[in-house]
Amino acid sequence: MAHCKTRRNPFVAATGGGSSSSSMTTGITRPTKHRRHHLLLLAVLVYQLLAATTARAYAPLSNVSLARIPSGGADLDAVTGALLAPILIPRVPGTAGSEKAQRHFADFFAHHLPLWTLEWHNSTATTPATGHMLVPFANLVFRRDPPWVIAEAGAGAATAAPGDVARLTLAAHYDSLYRPEGFVGAVDSAAPCAMLLHVARSIDAALTSKWDAMRAAGHAPDGLEEEKGVQILFLDGEEAWVSWTDSDSLYGSRALAQTWETTEHEGIFSTPLQAISMFVLLDLLGAPGPRVPSYFAQTHWAYQQLAAAEERLRKLGALETEASNNHPFLPEARKRPEQFTRGFVQDDHVPFMERGVDVLHIIPTPFPDVWHTLDDDGAHLDPPTVRDWATIMTAFVAEWMELDGFLPPVPLPEDTKKWAKTYTEKSEL
Ligand SMILES: *[C@@H]1O[C@H](CO)[C@@H](O)[C@H](O)[C@H]1NC(C)=O
Hints:
Layout: H1 33-57, H2 63-67, H3 96-112, E1 117-125, E2 135-144, E3 165-173, H4 186-216, E4 227-235, H5 251-262, E5 276-282, H6 300-315, H7 350-353, E6 359-362, H8 383-400, H9 414-428
Parallel strand pairs: 3-4, 3-5, 5-6
Antiparallel strand pairs: 1-2, 2-4
Helix pairs in contact: 4-8, 6-8
């Protein structure tokens, strides 16, 4: 849908430039009072307009499809889980632990999801902790576009170019804090990475079926509207090495946003940055009792989709946690436009948001108690919460990618289980 482009929001530039002394603090900019007032009014109007148009563009998943969203099950276990256990190790950039995490992601897709492409985005930088040494940072981008999207466009109506694809962009950082030594970062953010692996494998077969069906019906490529793809970013170097500043933080995401802003390609979108339909960032997830606010008025409609998925999954009995005292993971679906402030949490979305990308930030406020302590390890994860987040995110992505009717009834193909088993055994050696 080409009109999606209007969703990219004209005010986000106003949120840039916030500074903070640590990743905990809230970045707040101070436009003049009048300007802020006008921006707010405008934001309210546009928000209402968009809420009206996007509501029509989205068909909610049926209950049958929702019930087919697989649980991550034992694969998300902290000790034995094939998706999570191998990365519950220190993953400081440039170290062996970091490489092991990279291999985990690359092997997972290569073995189990070969239709996803892997694009490395490598950079180097000095850090205040490492002096003149250049530290390597490596982002991994796994992408699945419709099969008729061809790198070399020009073969006529039967193909589309990479620049014609609007990509739902799911992100988590895989690096861990440099100090304290031995810091694992289970909620920060090994568990979110594992959740994204689960999302990818859970939608893969349905994507194939949907695109096959579109082709069979002669609806692909569309030619007039943008195509819909999905990509998963495992970002490196989110953490500060000494203390959080604009230059000591977000090493991987800053470099990636810059590269994507300046890489031009043919198609509806002239850069990979413009091709991001929504930047969905997961962080600090896996501790019990999370409360994730809706941070941005301009993407509140997407937050509402996510909250609705949670609520419907709970009603269906598909989640394991109790929403205690009517306190779901996502409690702000009814937040009103005038209730939004300019506060947000500094994280990997910032370099993208500053460049006008729409952001949905899935991070709890307050942060989990274990935040940036040695207690942020596998033992302190709440397994039902980890599994429920994976389920909720999968439902959200399946809905976004319009997979209703294409989700297979069997939760996990047999070969996944076999792969998961060998992988666990291998990593135990
Ligand atoms: C990027 O770095 C990783 C190791 O960190 C390496 O395996 C990979 O081949 C590099 N890729 C490119 C394209 O340079």
